[in-house]
Every structure is written in C-alpha cells, then in structure tokens.
Specification:
Strand order of the largest sheet: 1-7-6-5-2-3-4
Largest sheet: 7 strands, mixed
Number of helices: 13
CATH class of the largest domain: Alpha Beta
Order of helices and strands: HHHHHEHHEHHEHEEEEHHH
CATH topology of the largest domain: Endonuclease, Chain A
Length: 377
Amino acid sequence: MATSADQARASLGIRLRDIRRDAGLSGTRLAGLADWLPSKVSKIEHGKQTPTEDDLRVWCAHCRATGQLPDLIAAVRSIETQFAEWRRIMRSGTRRRQEASAAAYERARLFRIYEPAVIPGLLQTHDYTVAVLSTFIDFVRVPDDAEEGAAARLERQKVLTHGDRHFHMVLGEQALHTNVGGPEVMSGQLEHLLAVLKLPGLRLGIIPADAPYRVPLNNGFWILDDGMVQFDTYSAELSLVRPDEITLYERAFERLAALAIYGAEVRSMISRRLDRLSKKDLEAKPSNSLGLGRSHSYCRAHAIRGGPYRRGTRTNPHRSPQPCAGAGSASSVPRQDDSRRLATPDVSRTGCVAECGWLRESPCPASLVGVGPHPVQ
C-alpha cells in the first residue's frame, strides 16, 4: 500500500523526468553524463529511489535547469517529513504531538493563521481544548489523553507573550458559532477571545459569513515565518516547505485577510455572539427540584450523579456521555415496587438526552433497582 511519502517521491520523479525530456536527453544519456548506472535514472523517475541533494545538483546541471534546483531540494527534504499520519504520530496520545509543536513555535517569529470553523489552538481555553482533542481522539481512535494534551497545548501558548513575535490570525465567523463543548464552554472561550484582543503582538480578524468569495476555501492553515506551511487533513498533518507552495499559501492568506474585519468590529461581533449565548443559557436555567432546565431532560440517575457528560472526571462538561448505571431496556431489569422510585422530573423533553434509554413513559432502568439514583441530599 502506497504511503503519502511514496506519492510525494513519485511526484518528484515525474518532475525530474519532465526536466530531462525538456533538455532533450534520454535516460541512458543522462546516466552516462552523470556517471551513473542507467537503472538509477529509471528508479528515481519512477519513485523507487529518493535522490540525494547532490543527485539533484548533477541532474539540473546536465539538464540546464539550475533555476529549479532550490524547489527540488526543498521537495526532497520534505518527502519523509511533510506527511505525518495521525495514527502513527499519535500512538501514545496527543500530548507528545503538542510538545513537538511547541518546539516549532519557539523558533518562529511570524505566525499567519487561518481557521475557518474553530478557534486556533494558541487562543483556546482549557475546556475548549479538551473538547476539541476529545473529538479528535474519538474520531482517529488513538489513546485518550485529552487532559494531558490540553495542558501541553496551553503551555505552548506562552509564545503569545514571550519574545518578539507577531501573530496575524484570520477566523471565519463560523468559528464563533461552532458548538464546541456546549454553551458554557463556548461562552468562556468567547470571553477569552475578547481578553486576548488586547495583546500587542496579535492582530485578529474575522471574515463575515456573507463576505464575497475571493479565494478557494479549503482547510485552515498556518504559515510559520516564510519557511513552512502546516495544515491538517482527516488522516494526516502536512508540512510544506517548497518555496512555490509557500508562496501560494501566502497569496491565499493575503486575500483572506483582506476580507476580514478588525478592531472594534471584531469586538462587537464577538460580544453579540456572547450575548446570544448568555440569553440561551438563561432560558435553560434549572426550573425544577433536580436542577434540570426545561430544554434539557435527563434520567434521574444522570441528574443525581452530576450530569451525563462527566466521564472519568467530574469537571469536563464536554466529554462523551457516561452510560447510565444499569442502562438497558426497562424490560431487562427486575422491577421494584413503585414506592421505591423517585418522582420523575417535570421536564419538557420526553427522554434522556444522554441516550441511556430512559423515557418519561419508561423510567431509566437504574431507577428500578438499587444501583442507581438515591434521594437528593
């Protein structure tokens, strides 16, 4: 099965073959001029062998293409490093990956960042980071160390205030609306955004949702100084170092930045979104004895145990739902006398949002046996 590095090697081989053909040389002739075995030219052009930088210099010299040498050297240097597959680099979890990024950030002095739908890691709160990493961990199926990964990500945020660095970040307006971790987490994140607007080295722009279409919209990307572009796909992280590719992403960033609003307009947009979140939160405040809002209905076991999303710890409202104790169909659990049950909360929803199987017409199985809810103290 071909890897991403294999594909990059094959792409380089095709490019070198075109250079040779443009020079009017056969593979045998080039091998003779370079004092190589003819098979070496064939292996390089078919992506079976990675050329060395000296090989590229000889190739370009005999093909009268020395102007292309810098790009070719950059390409060969990135073959083994530009494609980092998530399952491979995250075998031990997310923390080490966050620490590796910190080293690259320490070296960089200019950060140009575009994120269309989420808040960039350098501006994330702890809870928002854990929510993002938890989703990633579940999707890619790597070891769950969201808390440790979040701590490492927040540690690298010190570059925002240490050293002579400049940050130009452009977000899509959708980043203010993407519901990461729930309303409470989002409110904390937006409040944090308002606070970091005061940082002297940060220029934050937001592209309104109705901005004109002036540049192809793909994944978010980061440009570190003028030497590297990083972006993610579902399966891998890519790091591009070829000058022509960096130039293309710089052009994209310039056009995206030109569409953004800045300063007071950004503060106003974030504040409006925060106000709407606060209003929704007020509407969902507790309205019954078990502290359940009318827009959120949980089984009694979930309500008394502190909420359905507190898996592993009791402080992270963005984790995956914790199954209700004794969850299953009501018919599979021995029923007890009704007098031993608690009163069902008066809520507007007809079932538990944690999806443990509880319905108002069929109480959560945990409430039917001795392992589940107990009277609120």
